[in-house]
Write a structure and sequence with these properties.
homotetramer; mainly alpha; 0% strand; DNA-binding
DNA sequence: AAAAGGTGTTGCGTAC
DNA sequence: GTACGCAACACCTTTT
């Protein structure tokens, strides 16, 4: 189904919802509404996250560090260790952190 | 409050949670947990959004266009019109879209 | 100067470059051309960067680690140390990396 | 080739570039230097782009619109037209822009 | 394996 | 001078 680009049919001049595509239009509308509802929720939560960081900052914590911590905690500890080991190895090869 | 970099105090060798900073540590833990909870919710919703787009696509709709539509609908119509007018003006000045 | 939204003047029907705004149009064109030229160069260089990473990867190096290395090298070493210290501090407060 | 995680060999205490990996280390160094050189160029050009936008703005042009214009010009005009047609179609189906 | 779209982060310009 | 908001950048996942 879906919408296909067509030359405007005779129904258009009636100003009604495009006839033959009526079903598709309704379907599309439902999809868009579902998406918008979800996006609103997502946006609200994103706002909440920001507020928590702001509150933490006002208490003297560093949001930037906190973000790194949160990211670290979502990762597999083993992965983190391996990555750190690799970084140290590369740094040594480049004569960094002598 | 918050955490400040300090020279290791006498408590550290006990391996305990840093003493005088105990309160701050608890505070930090609560902030991080709140954030993680919110991020989980956000992630779940993002997954839902993707699913709706996927379902719409399976019905023949173009997700890329749908995303633009959703974006347009979130904007103030008046703003959109003004911006479009400006774009047309600039395009004309550049001889585009002749 | 610049372009202002105006009701279409009488010059428009001649299909010529908008009259009274001719100077602004030329100016705009020069700005846009300068930008496009620069963007092309930038894009070309970005491609080169990707190619170097790809070549390194084909030699057995890990591009992800390399990117972190490059970023580290651009930073002030002192800043890097401070940040790491803070991360360790926060991790300890949260009982991470036990 | 590349670097593999290894226990530090006896060469390390000589303070020299890790022995058996010497070739890989040199290779890595060359890759990193090439990347850094390219990144510097890219950064310089990005600065130039910003300057042009700033200059244009000081002449009364709207940088935001200019950015959209530049983006439009990089796209295939045919693609742009098709996309616009689709958007109009979807908008009509949703009763937008009546 | 390559490409594209989405997401998160960082840096810049602006307004207060 | 500081804090906010926006826009470019880089990363990553997913798709073709």
């Amino acid at each position: 189904m879906g919408l296909e680009a067509t030359e405007a049919g005779p129904d258009e001049k009636a100003g009604e919802i495009v006839d033959g595509e009526g079903i598709a239009a309704e379907q599309l509308g439902r999809f868009v509404e579902r998406i918008e509802r979800l996006e609103e929720e997502k946006s609200a939560i994103a706002t909440n996250v920001k507020e928590v960081y702001a509150e933490a900052k006002s208490q003297g914590f560093d949001p930037k560090i906190m973000r790194k911590i949160v990211r670290l905690r979502t990762m597999d500890p083993h992965e983190v260790d391996e990555e750190e080991a690799m970084i140290h190895l590369y740094k040594k090869a480049l004569g960094m952190g002598a």
